[in-house]
TrEMBL record:
Keyword Oxidoreductase among UniProt keywords: yes
Keyword vocabulary terms for this entry: Oxidoreductase
Native source species: Oharaeibacter diazotrophicus
InterPro entries: NAD(P)-bd_dom_sf, Sc_DH/Rdtase_CS, SDR_fam
CDD domains: SDR_c
UniProt xrefs under PANTHER family: DEHYDROGENASE/REDUCTASE SDR FAMILY MEMBER 7B, SHORT CHAIN DEHYDROGENASE
PROSITE patterns associated with the record: ADH_SHORT, PROKAR_LIPOPROTEIN
Signal peptide feature range: none
Protein's recorded name: NAD(P)-dependent dehydrogenase (Short-subunit alcohol dehydrogenase family)
Stated family: Belongs to the short-chain dehydrogenases/reductases (SDR) family.
Upper taxonomic lineage: Bacteria, Pseudomonadati, Pseudomonadota, Alphaproteobacteria, Hyphomicrobiales
Record keyword Glycosyltransferase present: no
Length: 252
């Protein structure tokens, strides 16, 4: 614990590739101790090599976020080891089937919501007490423009990201008085495996990379960031406070 006392403890999910990996390396280079969570041990070991190469340190956690017990055990382990966490970058997600809503297999629907929604709720549930013990807790969850564009055939993904948006912004309102920020990140089109899966005919070399995005993740999770309940839109490099006009009253 001594080696991390002066470092911010940052949990990154989906850390073995793409956006999660680039962010984990950038956070480590910025002086954070990274708790890297991913399903693949090999990918985590490659990440660890890159983090060591920039002079950083990491704790590797091979786990599936659909294993609810694993999330709870991680929360307990972090409490016993560090007594707190300072930041969470909830990046892990899946695209799911691109299909007419009426043709989506129920098991595939459940899988998308298990990863994109329920796992993030479980992370909030397990980490909320740890974040309250930080002097400047910062959290960032990966959303998508699909959550409000609602284009044809993207039903499971769009619906799951819309649900995530609602959960995060609700939680942001609940924990604001404790100094915890909870924001969302819209990465836009990036050169990732998920993007290639969604847009197979697209030239990946025309897209920005996860490494281009990573410094903005570091900034959003820094103690200096005080915005909360907002979306950082990477394509426009701007913060979006509200997508829809507020209702005349605070009711439903």
């Amino acid at each position: 614990m001594a080696e991390t006392e002066d470092r911010r403890i940052v949990v990154v999910t989906g850390a073995s590739r793409g956006i999660g990996k680039a962010a984990a390396v950038a956070l480590a280079a910025a002086g954070c101790h990274v708790v890297a969570v991913a399903r693949t041990q090999g990918g985590l070991e490659e990440l660890d090599d890159e983090i060591r190469a920039v002079g950083g340190s990491a704790t590797l956690v091979p786990a599936s976020l659909t294993d609810e017990g694993a999330i709870d055990r991680l929360g307990l382990a972090l409490f016993e080891r560090y007594g707190r966490i300072d930041a969470l970058f909830a990046n892990a997600g899946i695209l799911g089937p691109l299909s007419p809503v009426g043709h989506v297999d129920p098991k595939k629907w459940d899988e998308v919501f298990a990863v994109n929604v329920t796992a993030n709720y479980r992370l909030i549930r397990s980490f909320d007490p740890l974040l309250r013990r930080s002097a400047a807790a910062r959290t960032l969850f990966v959303t998508s423009a699909a959550s409000w564009k609602c284009r044809a055939y993207w039903g499971p993904y769009s619906a799951s990201k819309a649900a995530l948006d609602a959960i995060v912004r609700t939680w942001a309102a609940e924990v604001q008085s404790f100094g915890i920020t909870a924001n969302l990140l819209n990465p836009g089109p990036l050169r990732t495996r998920m993007r290639a899966q969604a847009m197979p005919g697209e030239d990946p070399m025309s897209l920005e990379t996860p490494e281009d995005l990573a410094p903005h993740v570091v900034a959003a999770l820094a103690p200096e960031t005080t915005r909360t309940g907002e979306v950082f839109d990477f394509p426009t490099r701007s913060w979006i406070a509200h997508r829809f006009p507020a209702a005349p009253d605070a009711g439903a």
